[in-house]
Specification:
Layout lengths: L1 E8 L16 H17 L3 H18 L5 H15 L1 H26 L8 E8 L15 H17 L6 E14 L5 E7 H9 L5 E3 H8 L3 H11 L7 E4 L10 E4 L9 E3 L4 H4 L2 H30 L1 E3 H12 L7 H13 L3 E3 L6 E4 L2
Parallel strand pairs: 1-3, 4-8
Antiparallel strand pairs: 1-2, 3-4, 5-7, 6-7, 9-11, 10-11
């Protein structure tokens, strides 16, 4: 099921250049990538590195922050040589999705999109290739619902049988804000920030509780975008009381005294708040689930081949198979053995409880 990362603009997109690799000379880039891959070989928990690398790569691709597509693909090629095809195929799938999305948007602009005032850019991301996370429950704002519905109809007419889900938490937008009669700016925002700003077309002031209700953004996901808009160094919104925490009765208004020398302004996101403790816990839980599945698969592979094996022999072979990915503990392996016995994949030898048999 493709996922859609939404980017909306009523002006030309802001040009953003990443500082990634900016301190590395082009001639030294290949050597630098080789050194990174060498360090990868020494990492014990490679699955954690791979999870984070995939997450950061997805952010660079969706936000247009990658400085060199050639360098990105070169790095993936070197990682493939080191760790194999299974993981890097997902990274290659991400690049393929971005390329196909670019072609799709050209077709959209040449047909339906050319007659719509809002400039829409969509990346259609295939589930399985991109990092997984909890789906956001919120829907596109009223102002964008029509164009989103038209794109969905356009896409499904080309790809019947597929299902689209909007990932508003991964998008960005350019909007024009009239702070006062003499101050008008183009702001480059995250999609969540855009949804908050659009509410002030109909309201002079809003409480945090009202913003939650009207946007349907999850409480944990809304704090970082909202506090970024009200940050003392940004001051797009005014907040009462002026604190670094947000509660239901806190009030937000447009800052009519907003000043910035630039006409196009990129509003940063508070990275320290971008991931809440709840989200970090969810990521760790997902990581543990993936490891359990890998331990289960290793045990079944070994026992299917050996048919019968002693406990210590099984532990040794599981560790040997998985050590290129992560270092499983004896306790974790024992728990998965017990789980597989309960699921009738394995059974204990009746005369020796320390021996396991594979149940075909």
């Amino acid at each position: 099921y493709p996922l859609c990362a939404l980017a909306v603009s009523d002006e030309r997109p802001v040009s953003t250049q990443s500082t990634w690799g900016s301190k590395v000379a082009i001639n030294d880039l290949d050597s630098t990538l080789d050194h990174v891959v060498m360090l990868y070989g020494y990492i014990r928990d490679k699955d954690v590195f791979e999870r984070d690398y995939q997450l950061f790569l997805s952010n660079r691709l969706l936000q247009g922050l990658s400085q060199s597509e050639q360098a990105e693909k070169s790095m993936i090629g070197k990682l493939k040589t080191e760790c194999g095809y299974q993981w890097t195929s997902k990274l290659e799938g991400m690049f393929k999705d971005v390329q196909l999305s670019s072609e799709l948007m050209e077709q959209w602009k040449a047909t339906v999109g050319g007659d719509i005032a809002v400039e829409l850019s969509v990346n259609v991301c295939t589930t399985g290739s991109w990092p997984t996370s909890t789906m956001s429950a919120c829907a596109p704002p009223v102002q964008l619902q029509d164009v989103c519905d038209k794109f969905k109809t356009f896409y499904l007419a080309k790809h019947s049988g597929r299902r689209l889900q909007w990932r508003l938490d991964l998008g960005s937008a350019d909007i024009q804000v009239n702070f006062s009669g003499s101050t008008r700016k183009i702001l480059h925002l995250s999609t969540y920030q855009m949804m908050v700003m659009l509410l002030f077309n109909f309201n002079d002031k809003l409480t945090y509780q009202q913003i939650l209700q009207q946007t349907s953004i999850a409480r944990d996901d809304l704090q970082a975008p909202l506090l970024s808009l009200a940050h003392p160094k940004v001051k797009v919104l005014s907040k009462e009381p002026n604190t670094n925490k947000v509660e239901d009765k806190h009030v937000f208004t447009i800052n009519t005294k907003y000043k910035n020398n630039l006409y196009r302004v990129k509003i940063p996101l508070l990275t320290k708040l971008a991931k809440s403790d709840k989200q970090k816990t969810a990521m760790m839980k997902a990581q543990q689930t993936r490891r359990r599945h890998q331990i289960d698969a290793a045990i079944v592979r070994i026992m299917k081949t050996r048919k019968q094996l002693k406990h210590m022999g099984l532990l040794t072979e599981v560790v040997e198979q998985l050590r290129q990915r992560f270092q499983p503990s004896g306790t974790d392996i024992k728990k998965r053995i017990e789980a597989l016995i309960d699921q009738d994949y394995l059974e204990r030898e009746e005369t020796d409880r320390g021996v396991y048999n594979y149940k075909a």
